[in-house]
Amino acid sequence: MSWFIIFLASSLTLALTFHDANPHWSWTQSMLTAVITALLFFASLLLHELGHAKAAMQHDIPVFSITLFIFGGVARIGREPDTARAEFQVAAAGPLVSIALSILFLLLYGLSLTHFDSAATVFQTLALVNLVIAIFNMLPGFPLDGGRVLRAAIWQATGNRDRAHRWALVCGRGVALSLIGFGLALMFYFLYPLNGLWMIGIGGFILVSGKA
């Protein structure tokens, strides 16, 4: 039921955005384009997590499940990587998939731009969204992918995994608090309450997850 609500909310938001940007579209065209975009967005999140899963399995790390949620997704692995190199490769695999998807959708956007109005909108949106997913996940704060990359780098430099983990947690708290502060500024100074709540929600999620 929660997935249906998230999907419905995403589709309706996209439909309103597409219709405002293309007032000549019918509501049916706007809604259909939005539903297709939302489906491909969730598929993109799944491919991002499959990138992590494939890299983990290449290092003989079992993958138990892949869970998608409102802020992204997580591949639940059986154990932590044994080396800094393995940690780096598993963490970087997801953002690399998102970048590849962004490039693919950008190419498709270019091919469809002058011939298929709705398709061009779908591809343009997904190119941007996947780029944002890659950039966001590479923020240097645990448990984001960027935090895990940072942990791998410190681990490799110091040879001390526990120290690397502590530094990654500290950076994660810094990133989370920065997002929360930015969200509060969006809400009360720039008067963008929905965007502000979104930033606060993401920051809170990182803060809570980083305690694990």
Q: Which tags fit this structure?
A:
mainly alpha; two-stranded antiparallel ribbon; 2 strands
Number of strands: 2
- Which consecutive residue ranges, at least 5 long each, have pLDDT under 50? none
**Cross-sheet strand order for the largest sheet:** 1-2
> Average pLDDT across residues?
90
Radius of gyration: 19 Å
Biggest sheet features: 2 strands, antiparallel
- Strand percentage: 5-15%
Number of domains: 2
Helix and strand element order: HHEEHHHHH
Measured as a percent range, the helix fraction is over 70%
Tell me the distance between the termini.
Answer: 27 Å
Tally of individual helices: 7
- Helix and strand content put the structural class at mainly alpha
- Principal-axes geometry comes out as globular
Description:
The chain is mostly helical and 212 residues long. The protein has two domains: 1-138, no CATH class; 139-212. The chain has seven helices and two strands. It has helices at 2-21, 27-58, 84-112, 117-137, 145-158, 161-188, 193-209; strands at residues 63-69, 72-77. It has a two-stranded antiparallel sheet. A hairpin with a 2-residue loop joins strand 1 (63-69) and strand 2 (72-77). It is globular. The relative contact order is 0.09. The model has no long low-confidence stretch (mean pLDDT 90).
What's the helix and strand layout?
Blueprint: H1 2-21, H2 27-58, E1 63-69, E2 72-77, H3 84-112, H4 117-137, H5 145-158, H6 161-188, H7 193-209
Antiparallel strand pairs: 1-2
